[in-house]
Amino acid sequence: MIIGIGVDLVKISRIEKAGKGHQGFLERVFTQKERDYCSRQKFPAQHFAARFASKEAVLKAFGTGLSAGMKWTDIEVLHGEGGGPIVNISGAAKDLADLKGIRSVMLSYSHDEGYAVAQAVLIGTAHGSVSGALSDRS
Fold first, then answer.
1. What is the pLDDT of residue 34?
2. What is the mean pLDDT of each run of 10 residues along the chain (138 residues)?
3. Residue among 118, 122, 89 at smallest CA distance from 104
4. Contact 104, 2 (CB under 8 A)
5. Right CATH for 2-124 from 3.40.1170.60, 3.90.550.10, 3.90.470.20, 2.60.40.10
6. Backbone phi, psi, residue 130, to 5°
7. Counting CB atoms within 10 angstroms of each CB, which of 16, 77, 110, 124 has the fewest?
8. What residues contact residue 27 under an 8 Å CB cut-off, 6+ apart?
9. Rounded to an integer, what is the distance from CA 27 to the centroid of its chain?
10. CB count, 10 Å around CB of 44?
């Protein structure tokens, strides 16, 4: 069952500027594994931007944004064995995922022409009633 969906679009230059101009931005937002991977790429900023958009998309899918004690690094975007993205959730984000019955996160992202985009779908089991459900009013 789909628990939530989220999408985000970010300007690559915005993330590049934040990484160069704001002390600690990369460390605050990205895990060591994410920083290592992105830094090894020919154009690191586009990879950082795709991960930033991914984290935002996951937070939007949760319906909470960055709240309830969550940190950026609670959501980690890496590559799976086949090369596709995988999402690791820890800390307060993991607690919320458990509370909402989320069992997995499907993620797709891309970057091109100065932008990075990501879409996240949270998959799990229903707990309680589904908010925003449609009813038959006939």
1. 97
2. 97 95 90 96 96 97 88 95 93 94 96 96 72 38
3. 122
4. no
5. 3.90.470.20
6. -90, 120
7. 110
8. 35
9. 16
10. 17
